[in-house]
Amino acid sequence: MRVAQVEEFGGPEVLVPVELPDPVAGPHEVVVAVDHIDTLFVQTQIRAGAFGEYFDVRPPYVPGGGLSGTVTATGAQVDPARWAGRRVIAAVDAGSYASLAAVPVAHLVPVPEGLGLREAAALVHDAVTALALLDLTALKAGETVLITGASGGMGTLLVQLARSRGARVVAVARGERKLALVRGLGAHEVVDAAAPDWPERAAEVLGGAGADVVLDGVGGELGAAAFPLTAEGGRFSAHGAPTGQGFAPVDPAEAAARAVTVLGIADVQLTPDHRVTLATRALEEATAGRLRPVIGAVYPLERAGEAHGAVEGRGVVGKVLLRA
Q1: CA dist list (Å): 257 to 113, 232, 260
Q2: What gap in Å lies between CA 179 and CA 193, rounded to an integer?
Q3: Which of 34, 140, 176, 196 shows the greatest Cβ crowding within 10 Å of its Cβ?
Q4: What are the 10-residue block averages of pLDDT along the chain, 324 residues in total?
Q5: Quick one: pLDDT at residue 243?
Q6: Strands 100-104 and 15-19
């Protein structure tokens, strides 16, 4: 099978095409002929050698993430009548940058008719995390939510899902092209993060009380500037850190003084069963036309290094996928 393999820690150029033996399904696994593959910013950071304390990977390795495809073989304990030939998505720990992948059957989610495998792949991780965040923060109709990084793969989904819950959506993105995108997805107000005074502008838009919920997918200095925009008694989620500056730093004493509930990435670490439940919801929303993934670029598997470069460069609006 064809894979994209990290030969050593380093820049995007260390991700190269390689031929490896085809996988064989274990007793509780299936083999999926991969159609499209999700890419996440964290995969580029791991490839560069970061987060070794959290991810036990050593080169050479095939990155893992989300995939879509068709089941071509089933293990001894898997019902072929249910799964053989099914179009599916799955989140896998390793080995999804490949033309074939062995996947635990418990991780599979069937893709409904009427939804493309490309679109489904874009929902594997981002839509699941977005739904988990909105459930965790208990965003309700009539509340105001501020979303940073709103033009990214998950940000675009958060804008749509928050709007569908009846919330007032204030989206923070960088530059007019990205602002126009999130407006079109349903944001009630937009704020340009490229402006030095963007926090002041956001405060004006939010009004004196601030946002009931702040969903920070950027972290670093921008995330730190977003925290004071949280209303007293509100909820602040620091779940993103693509700037390389870490998650948004929040003073626990300040949060306690203002009765702000602070949530982090650890709060959206999901069990496989919970992930399958949320992924099923996401696919249903997309099939019904209520959720549209924004796919900014698709690269063939052999050019996975270029895809990583595009993710790191942040020039692509929306999601970057690989095509197997």
Answers
A1: 50, 9, 8
A2: 10
A3: 34
A4: 98 97 98 96 90 83 95 98 98 93 97 97 96 97 97 95 97 95 97 96 94 94 95 94 78 94 90 96 94 96 97 86 97
A5: 64
A6: unpaired
CA–CA separation, 84 and 265 (whole Å): 35
Give residue 265's pLDDT.
Answer: 85
Q: What is the pLDDT of residue 180?
A: 96
Residue given tokens 């580029």 in the structure block:
44
Beta-carbon count within 10 A of 27 CB? 10
Q: Cβ-count burial of 122 within 10 angstroms (0-12 exposed, 13-18 middle, 19+ buried)?
A: buried
CA dihedral 178, 180, 185, 189 (to 10 degrees): 100
Q: How many CA atoms lie within 13 A of 219 on its CB side?
A: 14
Q: Render 56-69 in DSSP notation, one character per residue.
A: ---SSB----EEEE
d(CA 242, CA 312): 8
**Structural tokens at position 242:** 């693509």
